[in-house]
Every structure is written in C-alpha cells, then in structure tokens.
Amino acid sequence: MEHIHIASRFDKDARRIEGLLVTMAELVERQLQDATRALQINDTELSQKVNQGDHEINKLEARIDELSVRLIALRQPMAEDLRRVVSTLKVSSNLERIGDYAKTMAWRIPVLAQTDSVKSANKTIARMSDLVLSMLRDVMRAYVEQDLSLADSARERDADVDQLNNALFRESLTYMMENPRNIEASTHLLFIAKNLERAGDRVTNIAEQVSFLVTGEIFEEGQD
Q: CA–CA separation, 13 vs 21, rounded Å?
C-alpha cells in the first residue's frame, strides 16, 4: 500500500513538472513567432518584447530544474520513472537554448531595420521558422503522448531546415558580391538563419529524448 502511495505522489509531482515544461515550450514557440514577425515587418518594439520575454523562459527552466532535483531526492525514482525525470531536464535545457536563439534573432532586428531589405532572404527565413515551429509543436506533442513516430517525423524534417539554410548562404554570397552595400544586411540575415538552423538541431535533441523516454536508448547530444 505504501508503494502505491509513493508512486501516486511521484506521478502527481512529475505531471506538475511536465505541465511547466509544456508552458515553457509554448513561450518558446511564441518567442520564435514574434522574432520572425518582427523581422518581416521591421518591428523594433516587438523585437524588444522578445528580448524581455527570454527572462520568463529562464525562470521556468530554473523552476523545472529545482523541482526535478527535489523529486529525485525525495522519491528516488528508478528505471522508467528516473528516465522520465532525466528526459524532462534535457528537454527543458534544449527549450531554453531555442529561446536564446529567438532572443539573438531579435537582437539583430533594430540594425536590419536601418538597412535595405533583402526580401527573398526574409522569405527563406520565414519558411525556416515555420518549419522549426511545426517541428517544435510536433515534438512536444510526441513527448507528452510518448509517440515515437511523431518524434521521428519531427527529427527528419530538420534536413529541410538545413537545406534552406544552405540555399540562403549561397544566395547571400551572390548578393554581397553584386553590391557591397548588401554585406551588412546579408551578414545579419545569415546569423539569423544560423540561429534557426540551430533551433532545428535542438528540436532534434528533444525528439531523441522522446526515444530515450520510451525505449531507454541513449543518444549523444552534440548541438551547442
């Protein structure tokens, strides 16, 4: 009977932490959306909102870390329960990094607002952002539902993000060679695209945590 009570308390605490994780993912999603929107319309006020919003994501990560460590100390979970807590910590860390990438994107927008727009590059970045956002939504649903198929689908789409990033790099080189005045804007856009490419990598890391949670198989995360 005592074991049942302990298991019940663990599930209640774990669900609380996972609820915070879902909230964190929703904030990260909004940050990416707002950063991309700010770029498309040169909205420096919206970019500043993204910069300020990063604090909420960091606070949530710290709270998830605190509660997870406390859960391990008090409940001493084993096997599947321990994987559940460890994967939550890993997902939280990756979400925080995606939030950082959105903030870095937003930081460049006031400078870009003072330069000539490269419309084709903006369209490519918007496509990259849409892809990453769809991957993020799917991988978080996969995490909550422990759906390996959905997690794999999200991970596979990262190749499309990489392809768009490579295409933008080649296009930007052409613009910069054609006219030196394009160099500043193109450089900032390339950095923004790289942030999105890294965000896609982070979503891939989360997909791997879904696999770890369900199967116990460990992946080596190599994304900065």
A: 13
